[in-house]
Amino acid sequence: MYEAMVTARQYEERLQEEYLEGKQPAFDISAGPIPGELHLAAGHEASGAGVCQHLRDDDTVTAPHRPHHIAVAKGVDLKRMTAEIFGRETGLSKGKGGHMHLFDPDVNFACSGIIAEGCPPAVGAGLAAKKRNTDSVAVAFLGEGAIDQGAFLESLNLAAVQNLPVVFVVEDNDWAISMPKDRVTDVKNGARRADGFDMPGTRVDADDAVAVYEAAREAIGRARDRNGPSLLEVQVHRRMGHFMGDPEAYRSDEDKAAAERRDSIDRLESDLRAHDVDDETIDELRSSARERVEEAIEWAKEQPEPEPAAAHEDVFSNPPSGVTDSEPNVAEPEAGGDD
Amino acid sequence: MAQQERDPAEERQTDRSLTMSRAMVEAIAHEMREDDEVFYMGEDVADYGGIFDSTEGLLEEFGRDRIMDVPISETAYIGAAVGAAQAGMRPIAELMFVDFFGVGMDQIYNQMAKNTYMSGGSVSVPMVLTAAVGGTYNDAAQHSQALYGTFAHLPGMKVVVPSTAYDAKGLMHNAIRDDDPVVYLFHKRLMGIGWLPAPDGPKTPVPEDDYTIPFGSADVKREGTDVTVVTLGLHVHRALEAADDLADDGIDAEVIDLRTLVPLDTETVRDSVAKTGRLVVVDEDYRSFGVTGEIVARVAEDGLADLEAVERVAVPDVPLPYARPMENEVIPDAEDITDAVRAARGDE
């Protein structure tokens, strides 16, 4: 668990460095080696690691637009994920998806960039498990800013009424872009929303990865034993802006400092030391994580960019003839972009 | 409230230039000062000032009661805007990215757009739905669509797509004062945001006082005799760039900015085609069943005899890809437009 958390943090620190290259001094979102928006999850590691420790490759995870820590913990191919984030041909989605839309069917991992919209597909994965009579489970991750969406509330209801093996994990980092939690909901303990669907709800405070692990064991065990869905709300924190380039003018320095103080990785490290894990072991875990991250980033950067014409492929799995292979407009194939 | 329409030529007499976002905000602020019933609701519109600067600075003047941050719940707050509008207020609801329309679409097209009709005209819905549209910054398929055609296809909403600061302000004044629901789609690349540089075109002189631009009045941005290029939004600027390139080769393209899709100024387009005989339609939305097909159809219906050639330039029916080479491939650029113009002329 510690390794997954440290890997995720180091991964994001490196992504941040790479992302900012070419975007300084003047921040231009369309410049630099990593295209598009980038939503980093530093501070969320306890949730991904604590939950995914209990999952197998055949269990399904749906992640939101801030997916890296969950992907790392679920065992998504780190190299191909990185190549995807860099927009390369060998990326998980051949450069079509980007960082918010990571799909790794080998470990049943999927994403959506639309708030709360990963919840219904997780219910569907749970439904498939029930229909096929397997013991796999599905976990939907979402932020506390997503808990007012119909897709989330409707998914809780459908999972409950169908008694499906689904765990909903709400990552509460106190912020939905610029909206603090207290202006999003009057329900301080989001796990209480489970009451309305007559399912168990548990909240874990204080970025405590061990407590997340324990709570997730119970919820996932319950799902695997066909005892129905659960809701788990996990307190995490946001160490950075909503997306890279977010000036966070709406957030007080005190709030940022408070978030930094309650780091889940520091907390777990203290726990490990209290259980007589020595410095050498911790250092080894950290350096092997760093190597893995570096290797993925270096590999990704060496990968080729996709051919422009590849844009026309994959619209359908079973393309109707004359649809996806047709040339667009009247442009010659060599016609490129102008910005 | 003094309403005056201005000749676009007059705008050039003002020496104060604004970005498109500042021009939009100026119109909203003006309307809010004039009418207490106008308010603005959306995600990150208060403290943040809108992710694309669509409400920058409004919170300071109007406070949280009138510049309202709402939970992420498009169905609830867009529907609430419908209800407030039916109660006689003039809400503006912002859908942060147009790509999120699906989340609140029932409220948009079954309530907002249809209640006037279904009530036999006894109910009006005087609201504005604003949304950021467009790609060109590699944000992939869920954050890059234009979807102009989707809203224009469904009856009951007026659909506005400004391409310059001058138009953005005048059209926003209209939109807020209109008694019908207006969908106001602003292209991110035109807003003049620091982190998303705009081309030169959208920053224009903007008068300080209020003025309106009638819906359904397309703007002939460049006069020409050889071919008519019809477009909207960001691609007005790409078409003008293409026209400049073509002029170097002695090809004289007329560029028409539609400015609104509903109502659509068919007459200006038809008159232009009657003059040039050739039509090129450029759109950042998907090619099939969209703006390009509609424009061609309208010209063909009433002016088939004038038509010597037709070309369409649009996104080729694929979701917007993430990586730059592929995004550049599918979003039309100036070169795609020059190629289409040459093809319409039968050039090699």
Write the layout of secondary structure elements.
The complex is a heterodimer of chains A (339) and B (348).
Chain A: H1 2-20, H2 45-52, E1 60-63, H3 68-74, H4 78-85, E2 109-111, H5 119-132, E3 138-143, H6 150-161, E4 166-172, E5 175-176, E6 179-180, E7 201-204, H7 209-224, E8 230-235, H8 253-261, H9 264-274, H10 279-302
Parallel strand pairs in A: 1-2, 1-3, 3-4, 4-8, 7-8
Antiparallel strand pairs in A: 5-6
Chain B: H1 8-11, E1 17-18, H2 20-34, E2 38-42, H3 58-62, E3 67-69, H4 74-86, E4 90-97, H5 105-112, H6 115-118, E5 128-133, H7 148-153, E6 158-160, H8 165-177, E7 182-187, E8 204-205, E9 219-222, E10 227-231, H9 234-248, E11 253-257, E12 260-262, H10 266-276, E13 278-286, H11 291-303, E14 309-315, H12 324-330, H13 334-345
Can you describe what's shown?
The complex is a heterodimer of chains A (339) and B (348). Chain A has helices at residues 2-20, 45-52, 68-74, 78-85, 119-132, 150-161, 209-224, 253-261, 264-274, 279-302; strands at residues 60-63, 109-111, 138-143, 166-172, 175-176, 179-180, 201-204, 230-235. Helices cover 38% and strands 10% of the residues of chain A. Chain A contains 10 helices and 8 strands. In chain A, the strands form 2 sheets. In chain A, strands 2-1-3-4-8-7 form a 6-stranded parallel β-sheet, sandwiched between helices. A two-stranded antiparallel ribbon of chain A has the order 5-6. With 339 residues, chain A is of the alpha/beta class. In chain A, helix 1 crosses helix 2, helix 2 runs parallel beside helix 7 (209-224) and helix 5 packs parallel to helix 6. Chain B is an alpha/beta fold and 348 residues long. Chain B contains 13 helices and 14 strands. In chain B, the strands form 3 sheets. A 7-stranded mixed β-sheet of chain B has the order 3-2-4-5-7-6-12, with helices on both faces. Chain B is globular. The N and C termini of chain B lie far apart (55 Å). The model of chain B has no long low-confidence stretch (mean pLDDT 95). Chains A and B meet through loops of A and strand 14, helix 12 and helix 13 of B.
